[in-house]
């Protein structure tokens, strides 16, 4: 064992011990974060507008600070963009993470020096927990690739602005820089397909140990590698044993990944966003991710079935239950207050607090009152893949309210890497798995309000073409898993018809 591997194991043990201290005192940890945030922001414009000096408890906070999305906070953000100081947080942000929004146009999410440091720390600690759990530290001497956005930053009101992954590229620790791929020049390529081709050329002969990125785009990279080399990725990269991902559920992709790699590899799931780094998988055998309670973020949780009611309950960490779907609300050391990022979560453990991302509060199907969420369709697809010979590249689900004949149904639009040998069996497993999870959907099927789901098979590149038309090819962009309308479905069907 080399010095670098030995040092990684020693440091990993220390970090795990430090994590246990706050994870075993969750309520006190969050209370301390809450008080620190309120104190630090009391003299900001937002703090004065919302009487932070009078806030002594979470109850006071609820009365003075409403839940907002980006639209609700936009006036304050625009003041920051215009160059004003002490608006949402003391001073000015170190960066803006620029993301695309459906109603707001471009969103400018503030990132402070304190919040970017927490992002970097969380990424590091996730890997160190893996080292401690697995005993594997060999990868620290091998090449690592992070498929991410361009690190070239623009400016907004003199504040550096770019994608979160591009900003994060500036914070790769010095001890990893020598191992990191692709090159800075390749990382700066904006066009995703050109970039992937360049990444393949740079990495195809490398001794790769770790690969990280959103599964759908890493899948494209693996396909290009296999096409260029003629062998499975795991044979090409004999020492590749760790895949780090976030943003989407990996399970629907797992079978196809293992086919492309030719073997199983370890995985670490992360829950990062422009607004903060919220959780990471701290135990290999656990499905849930450890919620980061001491990272400058105060969390509130609103039961999703009450979210659209007037004055829904806003629960703190000590008040949540397992298995309930919650909308995640944030107040952060980047100046977001009572902020709804749109994600929904469910807790899988309360000692310590671990969770999974269950979907988006705006992404569901409830055309008939079924309220099907992303977690349910992803689990159903996982069941169907595991019980058949199918391999799936990508999929989305939409309601078909007015079919040409028969009852309405849910349409599953699927790009198969390998189509099932029996579509009837595959669709039956899908439908039953969805019924088993969602009693409302089951009642609609049994009551003959809906007929069982139908599958529409799409060309293998249909989702890539769709994302290209939206200007969202690669990077941090993700395919929406389901919708309550047919906008995505109809666009995909047009692509299918033109093939």
Which properties best describe this structure?
4-stranded mixed β-sheet; Rossmann fold; alpha/beta; 39% helix; 11-stranded mixed β-sheet
Describe it:
It is built from 18 helices and 20 strands. The longest helix has 22 residues, at 113-134. Helix 11 (215-229) packs parallel to helix 13. The protein folds into two domains: 1-362, Rossmann fold, CATH 3.40.50; 364-497. The strands form four sheets. It has an eleven-stranded mixed beta sheet. It has a four-stranded mixed beta sheet with strand order 2-1-5-4. The protein has 499 residues and is of the alpha/beta class. The chain has helices spanning 3-23, 26-41, 45-49, 58-64, 70-81, 113-134, 164-168, 174-177, 184-187, 192-203, 215-229, 233-236, 251-261, 374-387, 423-437, 439-446, 462-469, 487-497; strands at residues 95-100, 106-111, 143-146, 154-156, 159-162, 180-181, 208-212, 242-246, 266-273, 276-280, 289-291, 297-303, 326-332, 339-350, 353-360, 364-365, 372-373, 391-400, 409-418, 454-458.
